[in-house]
Structure formats: C-alpha cells, structure tokens
Design brief:
heterotrimer, A alpha/beta (472), B alpha/beta (201), C alpha/beta (258), B: 201 residues, alpha/beta, Rossmann fold, 5-stranded parallel β-sheet, 4-stranded mixed β-sheet, 11 strands, 23% strand, C: alpha/beta, 4-stranded parallel β-sheet, 14 helices
C-alpha cells in the first residue's frame, strides 16, 4: 500500500499548506539546501546551453505559445477531432470529469479484464488523481516504472519535481531504500549499480504485467494519435508488451496538427533537461494487434481554469519543469514544500485554482523575479499570474497581511535591543500605523538575520526642502 | 460509450464551450520557426554524428560495400540477433512469444531517416516483434542512409507519415536515466547501446 | 512648473537612503538636467499591490499619477517602482474622470534612472562626468529592472547580449567588475517576501553575497536600494565589511565617501 510521508492535496480537506514553514524546515540543513540548489541550477545551465544551440529560440517559444493558445481557444473542436480520429484508429476514448471518475474508469477497464499487475510510466495527471492508492485498495499491484517515480514510490513519498521525481534524494538515500526494499547490498550507492538493480527488478515486472498505464505528452487532434516521451524506455516496454494500454491525459494537452510536434519536441527536452530530445519520442496511432488501447480524457478543474481570464494561459504548460529548475525559491525549498502534485511556479498558478484556501501561501512563495516566465517554452506569464493570484487570495480573506508575515521559527529569538532597533527603523518608515502584531512580526522576521537600515539624520525630503528650496 | 461517459463527455465539452477564451488564430506556418537548415555549422552527416554521440550512441560512417562488415562488428559477441535490415540475417533470434525477446542480444533495423539537430532516428513499424525488440534487446544497431538525413524535426515531420504505422519513435541514443543524483546512467530499462551506421551516399 | 523632468524618490529611499537620492540629483544636475522632486506622492503603491492589496494600493498609485502627470519625463530611483508604475499606472484615471489617459501617459513617460542615463543621456556624456572608483564591484541589477525594463539581457533569454548598467559603470575609471557565477539570480528581497519567507529570503541573499565575494567583489553596486537594503542587512549582521552603493552614488563620485 502506498503511504505518503506528506499529505497529497485533497480538494476541500481544509488543511492549509504553509510553504514558508516547510521552506524554513528545508533550510535548516544548509549543506543539503546548497546541494539541492546546485543540482537544479546545473539543469538550468544545461537548458541554457541547449537553447543557445537553436537559432532564434525565442521565435520558437513564440510559435509554441501561439499554437497552444489557438488550441485552447478551440479546445472543444480539437477534442472532438481527436476523439473521432483516435476511435477510427482503434482506440477507445473515455471522458472523466474529475479525479474520481478517472480512477473509476481506469479501474473499470482493469477489472473487466481481471488485470491486476499494472506497470505505470510517468503521469503527473494520475498523481493528481491519486490513482495509485485507489487501485491498490482494489487489489491492483501498481508499479511505477520511471526510476525516479519508483524510488519515491518505494519510500512512500510523492515526487518532488515533475521531471526528476527523486532530485531531492542523495544516492546514499536511494541506496538505503534499495537495500531495504530490493535487497541490494547495504551501503551500495553507486548510481550505475543502483540503476542496474532497478533495471533487473523492474524488468521482471514489465514481463509479468497484464496492463500498462502511461501519460501523454501531446495528443494530436489531426490524426488521433499521441506522443509519449521518455529517456528510460519504460513507457515503451509497458506499451510493447502489455495486452491493455491505458493512456491518461488532461484535456489541455491536445495539439492541433502533427507538424506542431516539430515545435514542441524541439522545445520540450531542451527546456526540461538540456537534451536536444529525449531518448524516445514515441508516436502511437493505434493498438498492437490483440491489444486494447484506451485513452482517458480528464477535466478535473481544467475547464474551470480555462474560464479564468487571468489564468487560462497556465493551461499551455507542457510539463517541462524548466520553471522549477530556474526558480530560486523552488531550488531552496524543494518540491515537497508546496504540498501540491505540481510544485514550483507553474504549480503555484495551477493549484490555487483547485482550492484557494489550502494553497493560499503558494503565490507568495515567490519574489516575482520573472525568471520562470523567461524560461517557459510556451511563454506562460507566470510572474504576472502569481501577482494576480495574490489579489484573489487577499480578496477572498484567506490571508491577512498579518498572516502573510512569517511567525517565528526555530531560530534564536531576537534580543531586545535588536528588536527595538529594527522596530524603530520600521516605525520611522511610517509603519507605526501598522497593527502591533504585524510590526512585531515583521521586525522579528527581518531582524533574525538582518540588520535594519541605519536611519539617517534627516530624510531626503527634509534635505531637499532645505537645500533645494522644496518642490514647485 | 456508456450513459455515464456520454454525460461526462457532454458535460466536459459543454464546460469547454462555455469557458473558451476569445479566439487566437494559428498564425504563420510552423515550418518558418527557428530552422536548423543552414544553421548546423557543418555538414548534415557531421552534425548528425555529433548529436548522436552526444545522446550516447556510437556512429560509424561507411560506404555501401563496408556496411556488412561494420554491422558484423557491431553485433560481435551477440548470441542472438534479430534483424529487420536488408541483407543482414537474424541469428538464433527467439521465435515465440514477445516476452522471449527479453534475452535478445541485438536488434538490427533500418530507420526511415535521421535528424541532424538531435541525432535521433525515426523507426516506425507495424511489427510487434520489432517494436518489442527495440526496447528489450541489450543493444540496437541501426542502418541509415546519408541521403535520409534531414536537418531538423520540421523537415522530419514533412517527410514521414506518422499514421503509416501504429508505432513510430524518434530514438536518440540508448536508454538512459539521471534520476539518481543527476548521474547519467546508460541503459536504464531499454537497450544499453545504440550503434548507428550511416551509409554514405 | 519649473521643470519638465521629475525625479521620484521611493518611500524607503527617502527615509533610509537620502544620500542615494542626493547623488541621483547631483548626477542629473551635472548633466544639466534640472529635475523637480514634487511633494504629495511618497509611494508608487508597489508594496501594497505585491502583497495582494492592489485594490487598497489603488489610491496610492492614483495619487502618483496626479502628482506626476504634469511632467514630460518621470525618472524613478528604483527599478521595481518604475516597473510597477509602467505596468499599472494605466489602470488609473486621474481625478476620477471616466475617460482619462493620464495614467497611461504617466506609465509611458516613466523610466528608471539608469535606463534614462543610458538611453537618453548616453554613455558618452556619462563619461564626461569623469567619475572614478577604485576597486572591484559586483553589479546587481534588480529583477524588475532587468526583466521588466530590459536593463540588460537576462541570462534566460536567447538574444544578443547587452548590459546598460555595465555600460554606464564602464565609464567610471578604475572600476572593475567581478564576474559572478549567477549574475542575475534574484537577491531574495521581494518586498513582503523578505518577512513572509525569511528563511529562503535570507538564504538567497547569503548566496548572492557569497557569489560576490568569492569572485573578488569588495562592494556591491545596484540599481535598486530595496535589494541593497536586504543584502546590506545580511552583510552587516555577518560583519562582512562589504559596502553597497547605488549606481547613482558611483556616478556622482560619492561611493565610499560616506
């Protein structure tokens, strides 16, 4: 049974995610934070190098953005076109309004064939729907075959990054998990050896599987086919062998034409990992002989987001993770601190739409530096959307200004003279009008690690009046 | 479709129609965007070779006469070879169930084309055996013609018909992962090696 | 009015860093530009808006539009304030008139100091100031100035390189540039972020300072005093002895003179 070491988001559960508190806990281990930050920055640098090898990369981003906006503004047309063509290709197309309906459809397909050994490749959508525990509760053995997903699955955790699920783990920790769950020698931490052990362990499951479930990177309306991109070939091993293949996809992943794939596949891997392309970009246009091929189209809040004039462009997302790799906050707080299936900047503009109360802190887990917007291959205006979500959070009354300021953490309490100096500085700033709790909290949060600015003898305005005769 | 699914379909399409933002047009043709033609900085075959090597594949450029010998070298030591390539025979290839291909040492096949910007080859087939072998074999050897190299993915999509077979894949290098502390491991779940033979025009 | 150019001094610069505003005024005067500093609008409204209180901050930016609308050019002594005005002033109708382009006009005519000095005055005339500085500095362009105003090429963007701030500082004899590993990573201030997420804010600032000192910087020069307020707070708490200057101070020759 998959257990979670952190709570997966459940709409309406009411428990608020406190990103700042999670980030503070993450930062308690400075060395680990540095390592996590450096790992992800390295991926950002690889992205830069790959992007610079494409002449007029910015034009390619613009094309991708336009195609996605076109697709989304004609989504019903393309969905119907996809369904028609996919059905003609021999696929069975299903529609699911929400996570629960998706899970029931998937389980229904498996149950009808009495299939109980499922091998899964990466699908953030199925994470979002909580598919694994649903199936496990009903007697299906679910094996995540993406190595990073398998690692976190064995540890009972969720992925911390949408492309590199185990980026938060050191190889020694993976070694411990494999020793514990796969019986590898204690202390074995060489990535090659560990990956080799996983290869053997998972190969047996590929060969024994009676069903497979994959995600979909791009669903093509024009031809009724879809594309699955992996480096490991795990999705393909499942698809090539299992008699039942279920592909789950969010409705926003439809693209109009085959030729559009040229644009997206040129952008995807370069943005995600800095590779020119993933090892496998597999195009499926029909089942294998004797295979049942199902596609489940899932809404689960996407039409609600589509209706939001300020936020619908977040649906352009192709799940590359570049925004996470570049985000200075994500790198220094880790994916789990967002408490959402999709973390980082894109998670912070998608998830509040699902439950504003629970995820109220996410739009504030940002300095609005704009780096995410600059790397997004489909030009989602992430920083502008984060700004707009903040207005909604405040308007809804979910977070007051007082609550926005971090309460004290586990670090040392500010000594009185320092507190006085910082508070005094803030008071000089005209903030004596602030409510007492806010002033004290702000002084505490600032002053724990920083000196306050030294108040000068006179303000600039006072100087200006004296030396320049005031204004006109 | 069941009644429940029909109403889900109607509900979703209805929600989409109600939610759709104002129309955004497709705009100019995609094939004008950031093309690699003329931007590779070197010959097609050299660019392709460099990109393929970067993806972890090995590349041998040879003449038509040398192909047989090169492939012999590429499959040297293989106890079983499954070949879909002209003039290259299979050898002790497992014949039964697809699962029997799990022990296959080498697959030899002929991609339709290679893409210089990323070193990928397009392998499409209606053969279940080829498809399974492509991911089960320990190593894969492909033979592609220099004349079948194109500059970028746009050119590739203009040439191939993705609907011609139920399966087609751009394959760039052997299977790999960097999921453990960003260390690159070659041979994740799929093949551990990809050898590309480019036949000179 | 006496001048067609106004200088907007943000609230925190007015209160904590008057010497920076004095330096900015000095530089403009030496270039023959007489800038007014009108009374009546102490704040551009950005702190409130970024905290989610755009509605409450509306009257603040409306007042800004009222006070600055008469000017042909509005020079803002802060990248983040300039971007905020440029992005949001157009939403304001001055004097409550229904059809009013005053806000849009103010947005259009607003610029940040370094952008103004580079684009309008020109590096040649800045060289004419004959400013000098001795030492190696880390240049920090605030994120809003960088990505919002185009003060330099952001490292994410695949376009031809340019850096207006380096061009300005390049006219200062004796000034050397430290080459940071991450030249344009955010410093971690982010307004209420600094007190809302103090752990990450602090970590980001410390990392930036370490990058600067590791690469030989003996001072930090920035377009934004908000960034420097945060970095300086960290540096002084850790007794790093790392002075921080606004670009205006370097150009006015007052950097290091305090």
């Amino acid at each position: 049974m998959t257990q979670r070491s952190f709570e997966l988001p459940v709409v309406g559960a009411g428990k608020r995610v406190d990103h700042a508190a999670a980030a503070e806990a993450f930062n308690a281990d400075v060395a680990r934070t540095d390592w996590h930050d450096a790992s992800l920055w390295f991926v950002r640098e690889k992205r830069d190098r790959a992007a610079s090898a494409v002449p007029d990369w910015e034009a390619l981003r613009e094309r991708a953005s336009t195609i996605k906006e076109h697709a989304l503004t004609h989504l019903d047309v393309y969905l119907m076109q996809f369904e028609e063509n996919a059905t003609r290709n021999g696929m069975q197309v299903h529609w699911a309004r929400d996570a629960d309906e998706h899970n029931r459809i998937v389980h229904g397909i498996l149950a009808a064939a009495d299939a109980r050994k499922l091998v899964k490749s990466k699908s953030m959508l199925t994470e979002e729907c909580g598919l694994n525990p649903y199936l496990e509760e009903r007697g299906v053995e679910v094996v995540d075959t993406d190595l990073g997903e398998r690692i976190v699955q064995l540890r009972g955790e969720g992925p911390s990054h949408i492309v590199m699920p185990a980026i938060h783990l050191r190889k020694e920790e993976v070694g411990e998990t494999f020793h514990d769950k796969l019986g590898t020698p204690a202390g074995m931490a060489d990535p090659n050896a560990l990956a080799g052990a996983a290869r053997e362990h998972l190969r047996k499951r590929f060969l024994a599987a009676d069903c497979t479930l994959t995600g979909i990177n791009f669903a093509i309306a024009e031809t009724g086919g879809f594309v699955v991109c992996t480096n490991e070939g795990n999705a393909d091993l499942g698809m090539a062998l299992a008699p039942i293949h279920i592909a789950s996809v969010g409705i926003e992943k439809i693209i109009p034409r085959v030729e559009d794939l040229g644009v997206f596949l040129r952008l995807l891997a370069r943005s995600a990992t800095g590779q020119a392309v993933t090892a496998y970009s597999t195009h499926i246009h029909g089942p294998r002989p004797g295979q049942a091929l199902h596609v489940v189209l899932v809404d689960n809040g996407r039409t609600r987001q589509l209706a939001r004039e300020e936020f619908w462009r977040s649906l352009k997302c192709i799940r590359c993770g570049a925004c996470m790799n570049t985000c200075p906050i994500y790198r220094r707080s880790g994916g789990h601190s967002y408490g959402s299936t999709v973390p980082g900047p894109i998670g912070s503009v998608l998830t509040p739409g699902l439950d504003l109360d629970r995820y109220a802190s996410l739009p504030f887990a940002s300095t609005l530096c704009g780096s995410c917007t600059a790397v997004c291959p489909v030009k989602i205006d992430l920083d502008a959307q984060l700004f707009r979500w903040r207005q909604h959070v405040v308007e809804s009354g979910k977070v007051s200004l007082v609550k926005q300021v971090a309460i004290g953490g586990s670090t040392a309490v500010l000594d009185r003279p320092r507190l006085f100096r910082v508070a005094g500085a803030l008071a000089r700033f005209g903030l004596r009008l602030l409510p007492e709790p806010l002033a004290r909290r702000a002084a505490g949060a600032w002053g724990r690690t920083r000196e306050a600015p030294v108040p000068p003898r006179e303000s600039f305005r006072a100087w200006y009046r004296k030396h320049r005769g005031g204004s006109t | 479709m069941s009644g429940a699914e029909q109403s889900a379909r109607d509900a979703i399409l209805g929600a989409v129609r109600a939610a759709r933002p104002p129309v955004v047009l497709r705009g100019e043709s995609v094939t004008s965007a950031a093309r690699m033609v003329g931007a590779l900085g070197t010959s097609l075959v050299d660019a392709f070779t460099g990109a393929a090597i970067a993806s972890g594949a090995s590349v041998t450029v040879c003449s038509r006469d040398e192909v047989g010998r090169v492939i012999e070298g590429a499959v040297a030591g293989a106890r079983s070879v499954l070949s879909f390539a002209d003039g290259i025979p299979s050898h002790h290839a497992p014949a039964g169930d697809l699962h029997d291909l799990a022990d296959l040492d080498a697959l030899v096949c002929e991609p339709e084309l290679g893409v210089a910007e990323n070193g990928a080859v397009w392998i499409a087939s209606s053969s279940d055996r080829l498809r399974a072998a492509l991911f089960l074999a320990a190593r894969v050897v492909v033979v592609v013609q220099e004349n079948d190299l194109v500059a970028d993915l746009h050119a590739a999509y203009a040439r191939i018909d993705v609907t011609a077979h139920p399966f087609g894949s751009f394959v760039a290098g052997p299977s790999k992962t960097a999921d453990i502390e960003q260390s690159l491991v070659i041979g994740a779940h799929g093949p551990k090696a990809l050898a590309i033979v480019v036949v000179r025009a | 009015m006496a001048s067609s150019v106004a200088l907007f001094v943000p609230c925190y610069v007015d209160q904590f860093f008057p010497h920076v505003a004095i330096a900015a005024l000095t530089v403009l005067e030496r270039l023959g530009i007489k800038a007014d500093v009108p009374e009546g609008a102490a704040c551009c409204g950005q702190p409130a808006a970024n905290a989610g209180f755009a509605r409450e901050g509306h009257s603040t930016i409306a007042r800004f539009v009222d006070v600055y609308a008469p000017y042909e050019r509005i020079i803002v002594l802060s990248g983040s304030c300039a971007v905020h005005v440029k992005q949001h002033a157009g939403e304001v109708a001055a004097h409550g008139r229904k059809v009013d382009t005053a806000g849009a006009g103010v947005a259009e005519r607003t610029t940040e100091l370094c952008a103004f000095l580079h684009d309008v005055v020109g590096v040649d005339r800045i060289s004419g100031l004959a400013a000098t500085y001795s030492g190696r500095v880390a240049v920090h362009i605030g994120c809003h100035a960088l990505r919002g105003l185009g003060l330099a090429r952001p490292s994410e963007l695949q376009v031809g390189p340019f850096d207006k701030v380096r061009a300005l500082l390049g006219a200062v004899r004796g000034l050397e540039f430290a080459d940071l590993a991450r030249p344009d990573e955010c410093c971690g201030f982010g307004g209420t972020f600094a007190v809302g997420e103090p752990a990450v804010s602090t970590k980001m600032g410390r990392d930036k300072l370490r990058d600067a000192t590791t690469h030989g910087a003996r001072a930090v020069v920035s377009t934004d005093m908000s960034c420097l307020m945060h970095l300086d707070g960290l540096a002084r708490r850790e007794r790093m002895g790392l002075p921080m200057y606004h670009v205006a101070e370097v150009l006015a020759g007052t950097a290091g003179a305090r």
